[in-house]
């Protein structure tokens, strides 16, 4: 068995492999995700590996580097997705060898950790720690206690010139969140890959004050960034009105931002960590190890991972 980096000539075989490996998928989710992840500016072919036997590709793994904020420190990390092995080669050590090699290459690429969502009975043997992140939400009861003001913001599609301002909004919204993923300084990082998801920039008096992504069908708010509490309230009122939201609205924000809305709104905040949400530390960086040690001690110690827009395809 040979473990090597993927090549463009391998892409068709890799797509077919994932179509066979993920029998629970009813579509080409993993194959399409892999293709879109290759368009990320941080994509590194040394972190996209295949297992080959006699010219046949029997396994594939991909880690895409991203920047994370851990206790206020920017850290290079990666997301492992997907890992696939042809059914007839499963349980024969192919996945283990792919993970071992991609970990070696990740260390060489100066990644401090890798995170993933996966089987909590499989990945811990490779150093992954379970229950490292999950969901973080602020739930707000409707109807809102305050109505629309004369300063109702306008909403439009993001533009390339918005990127710097959107990064500032992200920093303000997540400034003290224990763990979060920082969008890349790239226009496409702010536009969903899912045509059902609206990507919105909010402006007031020609100033960018917020950003959100909302699924037009389910009305799920997938991302919410605001300049400050006033902007957050303005955006919330606009979203409730525009999407005809009823009963309650759930914002994908860490409970640390509850003071943006309460008072006067009736709010509740929660964090939850999932067994499938895992982190594998690759070096001795203290911020990462501190986070792993502290995450389960108090609810507010749990970070929030907003997956990059390629993952909205699946």
From TrEMBL:
PANTHER family per UniProt: ACETYLTRANSFERASE, AMINOALKYLPHOSPHONATE N-ACETYLTRANSFERASE-RELATED-RELATED
Question: Could you tell me the superkingdom of the organism this chain comes from?
Answer: Bacteria
Q: What is this protein called?
A: Predicted N-acetyltransferase YhbS
Q: Name one GO molecular function term.
A: acyltransferase activity, transferring groups other than amino-acyl groups
Residue span, N-acetyltransferase domain: 1-145
Q: What InterPro entries does this protein's entry cite? A: Acyl_CoA_acyltransferase, Bact_Acetyltransf, GNAT_dom
Q: What organism, scientifically named, is this protein from?
A: Evansella caseinilytica
Keyword annotations of the record = Acyltransferase, Transferase
Keyword GTP-binding assigned: no
Record carries keyword rRNA-binding: no
